[in-house]
Amino acid sequence: MSGTYRAIQLQRFADSFRAATQIVTLDLNDPAPGQVLVRNHYCGINGIFDTQIARNAVDYVKIGLPTLTGVEAMGIVEAVGEGVTEFNVGDAVVTTRFPGGYREWNLAPASHFVKVPELAPEWLALASTGVSASMALEHIGAVKDGETVAISAAAGGLGHLMVQLAVERGCHVVAVCGGADKVAFVRSLGAARVIDYRSESVADILAAEYPDKLDVAVDTVSGTIFDAFLKNVAPHGRVVVGGAAADLEGRPEIVTQPRIAHSLYYKGASVRGFMNGLLTEQWPAARERVFAAYRSGTLKVRFDDRAFTGLDGIYDAVERLLSGQSIGKVIVDLRP
């Protein structure tokens, strides 16, 4: 197959994704043995990761310039290389491998793709963020039925799925989010207690209502919310660190307070890091779990109300996510 396609390329390190990248035109080639050629139709936005990549602030990803960008995308298989038997032309597939997302076409090893039932953005959200939600809550957090579970950024793409998965397990969910619209949305998902961090003190509410009662707390924000989760973790509780949205520079805040051991030892509690890229062997089981929940109707996908289209729309979508205004998963329709 001959021709060209467009993609967003990281060309320099800068303070923002927009400043560090530009849209380039690349040659479109036929797949080599073991490869699959996919025309991307949708991509998922990971604005915090994108910003950290732009700033060269992700320790576990070594960036060589220039490089393409983006992680999640869904599309249709247009050609397969010799030896590829698991995919056929016309299959709907998802990739969650950097840098397969912010590009109109993706040529990559067949192992980078997963077949999904149809070309609908819900399956992109489930195969990417849904898997992450299950892994963070159920694999790393080891949640049990009926436990008390706290979730930060609960109205976001990841958070709203974790809330539902915990509710499905009969858990008492304490959800943290910001603003009246987000509070109403998260409450509609079944959260038992919703804390609006913009008008309420997370630390004060947890201390008053959930002292030493959080069996599982999944935090993707860091800062004072992490501190509040840790202080109120239950005996044998698990605090899961899934991100640090408050630390876009990638430079940890230096704080003076009792060592973390004092919050854990006498409770037999633990703090666990969630890095989804280290758990690829568990992805298939998690994917089946969230796919089944979606088919049964117990798990629903919410997309942000703002619509974004084309590669140019990715920039606005990244900034929308970083603004803190989005509710649910932010995606871009790449179709012309």
Q: Could you give me the name of the CATH homologous superfamily of the largest domain?
A: NAD(P)-binding Rossmann-like Domain
Kindly state the number of beta strands: 15
**Helix/sheet category:** alpha/beta
Mean pLDDT: 95
Largest sheet geometry: 6 strands, antiparallel
State the CATH topology of the largest domain. Rossmann fold
Helicity level: 25-40%
- Give the N-to-C terminal Cα separation: 19 Å
The rounded Rg comes to 20 Å
Query: Tell me, what's the shape?
Result: globular
Task: Determine the strand fraction and express it as a percent band.
Answer: 15-25%
Description:
The chain is an alpha/beta fold and about 325 residues long. The chain has two domains: about 150 residues, Medium-chain alcohol dehydrogenases, catalytic domain (Quinone Oxidoreductase, Chain A, domain 1), CATH 3.90.180; about 150 residues, Rossmann fold (3-Layer(aba) Sandwich). Helix content is about 30%, strand content about 25%. The protein has ten helices and 15 strands. Strands 3, 5, 6, 7, 8 and 15 form a six-stranded antiparallel beta sheet that branches. Strands 11-10-9-12-13-14 form a six-stranded parallel beta sheet, sandwiched between helices. The protein is globular and about 65 Å long. It starts with a strand and ends with a strand. The relative contact order is 0.15.
